[in-house]
Amino acid sequence: MTLVIDCVAIGDTMMQEIIEEVKTLKSKGITPGIATLLVGDDFGSRMYRGQVERFCEEVGFNYINENPPADIPEKDVIEVVKKLNADSAVSGILPLRPFPEHISDTAVINTIDVNKDIDCFHPFNMGKLALGEPTFPPATPAAVIEILERYAREVEKVDPKDFFEGAEIVVVGHSNIVGKPAAFLALNRNATTTVTHVFTSMKGNLAQHTTNADILIVAAGKADLIGPDLVKEGAIVIDVGINRVKVLDENGQPVLNEKGKPKSKTVGDVSFDAVKDKTKAITPVPGGVGSVTNRMLIKNALKACRIQNNLL
Ligand code: NAP
Q1: Is 266 touching ligand 1 by the criterion CB < 6 Å?
Q2: What is the pLDDT of residue 267?
Q3: Which helix (H) or strand (E) holds 94?
Q4: CA 222 to CA 236: how far, in whole Å?
Q5: To pair with 105 at 20 to 30 A between CA atoms, which of 28, 57, 71, 276?
Q6: 240 CB under 6 A from ligand 1?
Q7: What is the DSSP letter of 86?
Q8: 3-state secondary structure of 285
Q9: Angle 98-103-105 from CA coordinates, rounded to 5°
């Protein structure tokens, strides 16, 4: 019997845990805070900014919104980051990318105080992640690990340490923000870790790796990339992908909405209905990894706050 992992419930539980921790910090006179840095008005970044603001309100964090215009010179953006570095109300800084073309990602990110780098963008923190040292693990792959750890404890009733050690974990996708750090987090837990990517697919070798996986983590951004032929019987499948696709009718034609435009829906990278019964456990999309990702960011900000207040 397949378990569809209830990531929304995991996110809700984490939210309650976070609210309790914030209460404890506030009783010591400390209020954690997150600052977002959005240069200009990129649509996706504005949506994400709004989400972070709502989460901050919900858990009782300070929220600081830095939103300079798109034509601000790079040196002035650097000054904004330095100001946030020095602000004790700011525990964590979240740069929202893409930046306008004249602003270098590297210049901005390398200016962030490494103790306020809550999504692990700074090379110093990425290096610590690679070395297996304590750091701020990037929110999305950290969410994947959190889901697996809770699954190990609550469903399989095993210590997460034993669950990961020697498990065959295959990651599909090797981006700097999801695939690579997910692989480091798995390796740091002594899983036998394989990373695959578009060149693995181009050589026709993807199935050869994915069908070995006890745990398959997919973060490619390609709807229907993973069908049942790519999954081992009884595997655990974590689908990170988020894709907008057209809704099709039984003849493969687009279904139209009341305005005559094609209807769309959100899906992952895994063909959920076709793959589900082959798995031991699987995360859905929507209502999957994304429901935990923002909580991980808030957890990192809590950790940053404790470090900055000598409570760790
Ligand atoms: P990305 O930067 O585009 O990276 C995608 C990765 O997948 C790349 O390493 C790419 O390989 C690989 N890939 C592409 N096509 C492939 C194929 N046919 N076979 C094997 N590998 C393939 O994307 P990302 O930022 O890592 O995000 C990945 C997905 O996760 C997206 O759908 C994104 O929306 C979603 N996401 C979800 C959350 C969440 O909270 N749920 C958070 C962040 C991202 P190459 O580099 O070699 O081309």
Answers
A1: no
A2: 96
A3: strand 92-96
A4: 19
A5: 57
A6: yes
A7: H
A8: coil
A9: 60
Question: Residue 173: left (phi > 0), alpha (psi -120 to 50), or beta?
Answer: left
User: pTM score, two decimals?
Assistant: 0.95
Judging by DSSP bridges, how do beta strands 279-282 and 92-96 pair with one another? unpaired
Q: CB burial class (10 A; 0-12, 13-18, 19+) of residue 172?
A: buried
Structure tokens at 211: 């069908």
Task: Work out which ligand 1 atom sits closest to the CA atom of 178.
Answer: 26
CA distance 211 to 233: 8
* Rounded distance between C-alpha atoms, residue 81 and residue 30, angstroms: 22
Residue whose Cα lies nearest atom 1 of ligand 1: it is: 175
Closest Cα to atom 42, ligand 1: which residue?
140
pLDDT tens digit string along 185-238?
999 999 999 999 999 999 999 999 999 999 999 999 999 999 999 999 999 999
Classify 298 as helix, strand or coil. Answer: helix
* Ligand 1 binding pocket includes 219 (Cβ within 6 Å): yes
Residue 7 is encoded by which pair of tokens?
């990531």
Separation between Cα atoms, residue 306 and residue 312, nearest integer Å: 6
Tokens of residue 229, six digits: 């032929």
Supply 3's token pair: 């378990």
Closest among 11, 117, 121, 5 to 55, alpha carbons compared:
11
Angle value at C-alpha 27, between 21 and 31, nearest 5 degrees: 65
